[in-house]
Design a protein that fits this description.
Blueprint (H helix, E strand, L loop, with lengths): L6 H7 L4 H8 L3 E6 L5 E9 L3 E9 L2 E8 L5 E7 L2 H9 L18 H4 L1
Antiparallel strand pairs: 1-2, 2-3, 3-4, 4-5
Amino acid sequence: MNRPISEAEAVRRYPELHELVTAGRAGWTFRSLHDAGGELVGIAASYSRRQYTDALFIGDRTNVSAARVFHEGGGCAWVKEGSDLHDVVQELHGLPEPGEPGTPTPVKRSSLLWTR
């Protein structure tokens, strides 16, 4: 069994974890993802604002996905898959707020049939 380490030691060993520490301090919610046998297979994180939710899915250090989903009218406005946690998180955090120039618009919407 692995011995727990401090947050500071984890970031020292794996500098890319700094992105997750910063997100946690900003109010993001984290959940561990487990397979049927209880083995950890990844981490899901989300942060909801009034108009949208940002989400991260981390399979490992080189398997990261992020998305922005709008609440009003539904739909996924931005998706990114990558192999670098830092780059994916920075790109997500760099998205403009709704109403600002360059704001992504939903490209995938929910079907009304599915949501009823």
